[in-house]
């Protein structure tokens, strides 16, 4: 509980900083870049080599893809019923299947499931959510984007994945299994990785937005209902049906309940996919997740 309170305090600090004059507009972007290039790779290199492997790990990798498929089908179902505009459908197809499993997921996993569970959260994020953003996300953007720019090809997607710092760190972390780091290296990685939670949550708080545009209230409630309600419920039912248990399984289901991804939101806004709806999905989703995640945790 103490860790959870501290994590929320970082979020509130980010909200406060947003109201202080003199802070540059790109403040949150700088924090996000620091996380991508420093904090997250350091934590990957530190935690992943320590984790155990087995069938439970396969579930951690597969579940995010199951959630992408489930959520996309749900969005298309509701889009047909409610006859949403194409931009709204594209927005929800990008935002609902992709969860905030890194920037918010890792701090929340740490707060509820402990330090040792972080490694599984990283696997879920890097081999699930991030790859889905780069592949499925690019596909959705190519179909629904209002931009006339050049659409990303397979080569562009592969290059993006291969050059993403946390993914590079993940590859090295797998190669480093069974290797003991020298003391100073472990201390360095630990101190740099320790910056992840405060920096991420301050950046998230700084970026929070709840602005809406006409005609988006229904899609907003539907999207968040699927993301924070139906998706984790489906994950729980799948776990029960398969008779799975253990820490890795708990992490996977918990990550399935994360709100919409911040990075996917940035791409949706740049592509002109209902920007205010996108911002509201991210902002309100984060707020509501502080209620839904503790409830989900009780069922794990």
UniProtKB/TrEMBL annotation:
Arranged from A to Z, the UniProt key words for this protein are:
Cell membrane, Membrane, Transmembrane, Transmembrane helix, Transport
Task: List the source organism.
Answer: Dissulfuribacter thermophilus
TM stretches of this protein = 27-46, 58-79, 91-113, 119-145, 157-176, 220-239, 251-270, 277-297
For this entry, the protein name equals Malate permease
Quote a single Gene Ontology cellular component term.
plasma membrane
Membrane topology, record value: Multi-pass membrane protein
Q: What is its main location?
A: membrane
Q: What PANTHER family does its record include?
A: AUXIN EFFLUX CARRIER FAMILY PROTEIN (PTHR36838), SLR1864 PROTEIN (PTHR36838:SF1)
User: Where on the tree of life does the source sit, at the highest rank?
Assistant: Bacteria
Cell compartment(s), UniProt: Cell membrane
Similarity remark: Belongs to the auxin efflux carrier (TC 2.A.69) family.
Offer one example of a GO biological process linked to this entry. Answer: transmembrane transport
InterPro entries (alphabetical): Mem_transp_PIN-like (IPR004776), Na+/solute_symporter_sf (IPR038770)
Short name of any one Pfam family annotated for the protein: Mem_trans
